[in-house]
Specification:
Shape: globular
Order of helices and strands: EHEHEHEHEEHEHEHEHEEHEHHH
Helix content: 25-40%
Largest sheet: 6 strands, mixed
Strand content: 15-25%
Number of strands: 12
Strand order of the largest sheet: 2-1-3-5-6-4
Number of helices: 12
């Protein structure tokens, strides 16, 4: 690229929250591209105005963290299918006509992580159990349905929240409270934790894995610690497992490709860089 192109991670949290500059900075250097990727802290009360006049920011694209993803989506002139389905955008760019476009790559990040670390994971898999009913759960339900899972069960402590997501995605999704979990686990091919339980500083995720077939894949979107208690217990009983770090890395791939015209690779070096920054052992 002849000109230096500026992208940014737009966050409502303290600027140190996002690791995106490390991820994109590694790819920019690896591919010898002239560009920069910085953090911008946008207060929630300023978010609507910021995205409403995004072109004035001097950026040509951005990633967006919580709690701004819904505000960003509403400001866009065009949204991809995932962002439309979820009402949230985490990747923005200005097209040739100056329109603000948005995508949601969280679900793609989830799929990319499993595709890389558990090849063939979605072959002959029919039933999935998703724990939690927040934004990550919504993205993962979308992702699983895009891979033609026959049934996706959303299990949440507050049943009404699970019902909201199930209602958005149609007949292949059903909502349950925690009392149904034992029965559901006995028939599942994939178990996904999308809650913060098990994260460093949070209570552990305490569920009984005895009914779960040992052939079922278990994955956790938490990546600090890298091996959560859920993943440790699943591995000890013989289940295949995938940690959550790759979802963070793979969700960044589509944005980088759109902005810089190169599809980057999530490799061991990048993974090691992020683990070191997080202070997590690989």
């Amino acid at each position: 690229m002849n000109e230096k192109v500026r992208k940014s991670a737009v966050t409502g949290h303290p600027v140190a929250h996002s690791r995106s500059p490390l991820v994109h900075g590694y790819w920019l250097k690896k591919h010898g591209l002239a560009g920069s990727y910085d953090r911008i802290d946008v207060a929630p009360e300023s978010a609507e105005a910021f995205f409403g006049d995004f072109a004035a920011s001097g950026l040509v694209g951005a990633n967006v963290t919580v709690p701004h993803k819904e505000v960003a989506a509403r400001a866009c002139d065009w949204l991809d299918e995932a962002a439309q389905s979820m009402g949230a955008a985490n990747t923005l760019w200005l097209d040739a006509n100056g329109r603000l476009c948005g995508a949601n790559t969280d679900g793609l990040g989830f799929l990319g992580n499993l595709d890389q670390l558990a090849p063939g994971w979605d072959v002959s898999r029919e039933s999935a159990v998703v724990l939690g009913a927040g934004g990550a759960a919504r993205a993962i339900v979308w992702a699983l349905l895009s891979r033609n899972f026959t049934r996706v069960h959303i299990v949440n402590r507050t049943l009404e929240k699970a019902k909201v997501i199930a209602g958005e995605f149609g007949s292949k999704t059903t909502a349950h409270d925690l009392n149904s979990l034992g029965t559901l686990l006995g028939k599942t091919d994939l178990l996904v934790n999308t809650t913060s339980l098990g994260m460093a500083g949070k209570p552990p995720l305490e569920i009984d894995l005895k009914p779960l077939p040992t052939s079922a894949l278990v994955t956790d979107i938490v990546y600090v610690p890298l091996q959560t208690s859920l993943l440790k217990r699943a591995a000890e009983r013989g289940n295949p497992t995938v940690d959550g770090l790759g979802m963070l890395l793979h969700q960044a791939v589509p944005g980088f490709e759109r902005w810089f015209g190169v599809r980057p690779e999530v490799d061991d070096t990048l993974r090691a860089i992020i683990l070191e920054d997080l202070g997590v052992a690989g």
